[in-house]
Write a structure and sequence with these properties.
There is one protein chain. This protein has 13 helices and 15 strands. By secondary structure, the protein is α/β, with parallel strands linked by helices. The strands form three sheets. A six-stranded antiparallel β-sheet has the order 3-2-1-4-5-6. The chain has a five-stranded mixed β-sheet with strand order 9-8-7-10-14, with helices on both faces. Strands 11-15-12-13 form a four-stranded mixed β-sheet. The protein is globular, with a radius of gyration of 30 Å.
Length: about 450
């Protein structure tokens, strides 16, 4: 028969090769499963609307059974009782996302946000086609709104340009809800609760800041009553400040004499101070399985952070880049009052350093797997960003990035070296300006000075 001959001809024309890479098999399976899931979701959505359309024709006595087996009614939207409870909408176009966040009021529509907007725009096109029977060939997003209502799901309002079969173009607003599904447990990735943490601290001989750091370290990691298993590696650049290096050695000796079980090590690095060189020197002194914490001498930590440092760092899988809280200049924040021993986190006392990636918890093996820090970078800044991006380029790693209220950066005067590269100098000036005080506090300070000038 003709069909049989066609099959034979097709068989001679095709060559079938097995998929040899397991990773490719999983990717193919995930792709086709996703297609099936999308088709199933569209079918469910269509059935939901059909069921909802006949609900009003059911006798009252059947409604309880209907709602039991076909719970089509979605939870009502959250109704705020005060202006502080209002869930604001994000506004977006096909290129930009606008949000009511002072630090980042507008940003490019990229990553997961772009994927979300693209997917919901396509869903809207399909739903309009099914609902109205119009063949929508293309849907072009003009603008939209999005918000997350924790009680029901993600809501969208899309203003779209619909290109219909036949050449006509119409403008239409579509409101959609991506409802939350059932709660599911995920595979938990967690580090070792009792793992020893190896602190790696690069120093250029600034003794006073390091004294404050050691007071903090002693209270949590050395005193027997609160002792947490840690090792302190201090990398000192002796050539930069010989007297400071000697003072640091004397300071550390007082702790080793006071606490016989303290594991405190000093490593001397050559040349001028370089944060990346200092951290790399400390890392190279450790074993592959050691859990490291890269930290600066002007950072305070609390017990809660140390627990999260362990839990959020999993060898070969996850590294922890916490966002620390940068405290403002206490002489401006508190003026004539004494600063509290435990600063509160608020918009008047500091800000989250969203631009800083220098503090990190990770295993030595993971540090080596991405090639470590770029030790060629000279001066302030940039080495932390590049190191962070190395992990983003490795799909096998989960980069855990979150604010940590138990990691605080103490304010101190800064100086930006004019010899820095243009990019580094700009970053340094920006960090110094943002970390001085809040905009309101600086404005009050400026106005007070202007008023004094006016009186004189």
């Amino acid at each position: 028969p003709a069909d049989e001959k066609s099959l034979q001809a097709m068989g001679r024309a095709l060559t079938i090769h097995p998929v040899k890479k397991p990773e490719m098999v999983y990717r193919l399976h995930a792709y086709y499963t996703k297609l099936q899931l999308t088709e199933a979701q569209q079918r469910i959505s269509l059935l939901d609307r059909e069921a909802a359309s006949i609900k009003r024709f059911l006798p009252d006595q059947l409604l309880p059974r209907y709602n039991q087996y076909l719970p089509m009614d979605l939870p009502p939207p959250f109704k705020p009782k005060t202006r502080f409870e209002v869930i604001e909408w994000q506004y977006f176009t096909d290129r930009t996302l606008y949000q009511n966040i002072e630090q980042v009021p507008a940003l490019g529509l990229t990553g997961v946000d772009r994927a979300d907007v693209t997917a919901i725009t396509e869903s809207a096109r399909l739903l309009v086609t099914e609902r109205d029977g119009r063949h929508v060939l293309k849907a072009k997003l003009q603008s939209g709104y999005r918000r997350v209502d924790a009680s029901r799901g993600v809501e969208y309002i899309l203003d779209m340009q619909l290109h219909l079969k036949g050449g006509s173009v119409i403008l239409e607003r579509v409101q959609l809800l991506r409802p939350f599904g059932q709660v599911q447990t995920l595979t938990t990735t967690i580090g070792e609760d009792q793992a020893r943490i190896y602190f790696v601290v690069p120093l250029s001989g600034i003794v006073q800041r390091f004294r404050q750091f050691m007071d903090n370290y002693e209270s949590l990691c050395l005193k027997p009553k609160f002792a947490i298993p840690t090792t302190l590696l201090v990398v000192v650049f002796k050539d930069d400040n010989p007297q400071g290096a000697e003072d640091i050695q004397k300071l550390l000796s007082t702790y080793t004499r006071k606490y016989s079980s303290a594991d405190i090590r000093v490593i001397y690095a050559k040349g001028k101070f370089s944060r990346s060189v200092g951290l790399d020197t400390g890392a190279q002194a450790l074993a592959a399985g050691d859990l490291m914490f890269f930290v600066d001498a002007d950072v305070n930590f609390r017990e809660g952070f140390l627990s999260r440092c362990r839990k959020n760092s999993v060898r070969g899988k996850m590294v922890y880049f916490p966002t620390l809280f940068m405290l403002y200049n206490p002489s401006i924040v508190y003026r004539d009052e004494s600063p509290p021993s435990e600063p509160k986190i608020s918009r008047n006392t500091g800000h989250w350093a969203h631009y800083a990636y220098g503090m990190v918890c990770l295993h030595k093996a993971d540090y080596s797997a991405v090639g470590g820090l770029d030790t060629k970078i000279v001066g302030w800044g940039a080495e932390d960003v590049r190191f962070y991006e190395k992990f983003l380029k490795k799909p096998e790693y989960d980069v855990f990035r979150a604010v940590d209220p138990d990691l605080l950066h103490r304010w101190h005067p800064k100086r930006c070296d004019p010899q820095l590269s243009a990019a580094q100098f700009k970053m340094c000036i920006g960090a110094m300006a943002e970390g001085y005080a809040s905009k309101n506090q600086l404005a009050v300070l400026y106005l007070n000075q202007e008023m004094k000038k006016g009186r004189s």
